[in-house]
Amino acid sequence: MHLINISRENILKPLIAVIGIVERRHTLPILSNVLITQEKETLSFNATDLEIQINAYVKLTEAPVEFSLTVAAKKLYDICRALPDGLMINLEKKDDGRLQIKAGNSRFSLQTLPADDFPQFSRATDEFIALRLSQAKFKSLLNRVYYAMAQQDIRYYLNGLLLEIQGDQLRAVATDGHRLALASMVLPQEIDEKEIILPRKTVVELIKLLSDEDDDLSVEIGANQVRFSFQNISLVSKVVDGKFPDYNKVIPTQNSNHFIIDRLALLQPLQRASILSNEKFRGVRLVLTQNSLRVICNNSEQEEAQEEVTIDYDGEPLDIGFSVTYLLDVLNNLNQTEVELSFSDANSSSLVMIPGDDAFKYVVMPMRI
Q1: Does the predicted model carry a pTM greater than 0.85?
Q2: What's the mean pLDDT when you consider all of the chain?
Q3: What domains can you pick out in the chain, each with its CATH number?
């Protein structure tokens, strides 16, 4: 049975949007599939891992036969990606249940599974908070903090990202227990207080999918799930059930030694020096003296890298160690020209900020080197 004749671009674009959610090795085989549904003039592609569900769709100029089936997402994606640009793709359902894909001189037959067996989230019926944001601004908010999320921490709530609404402020906070990143943005209107923890995978997918333009993003935050709608994509995510630690307690307020430096003037010496850092601990020493910053890395083979940068600094002499990875993460994920670093002593947390901008703070614990 003939299903649809569609351009390669119209099938590949929604597949690219949903493929990141698909689990390739899962105990439920259908979770490796994408649900393809044709209703009226809308062709939609749906994928889920039971924690996140994503739907991407394209509008067609005509309404072919309605159908619904599931097929291996990765195989279909790889086939469409390998076909030449501008090619028309014909989909047919064979009598044995397989999906036949015809394109030019190419023929592919893929196994299908029943669409009725595909798990889908039910839409939340509880009250929710609705926000309309700029995609670019929300993506920038996530980019400023996501790298500080924990990975596979036993404290499962640290593996996600806190979104907190207070009045007209939306804050994003991430921490792995050794460093913490906080960023905020102003909302168009004041909203009731609310906080949720987004799973790590949800955050990563949003960063990939959101536009860098000021296009609209609709966010609906409920008790147990949150829905993001933008362009032709809808992403629904469960929220992490847990209590995020009180991040305000770890932000230092008494650091008396500080300096402002060009971001690249600090990033590049750290990148060069880190070549000779210890592979296991990845430590770096920052040695501060009058108008001077020395960046020092060494390893177990008695090798050493040292860089000296002239800075405007008249605070106390200081020799403090950090994970060089933690410093590189924050400098790579900011796009401002300058950053401000503040310190108390070699045993206390340090703070990375943007001069004149209270909307970002990065706290990093020192390490012994």
Answers
A1: yes
A2: 94
A3: 2-117 (3.10.150.10), 129-249 (3.10.150.10), 251-364 (3.10.150.10)
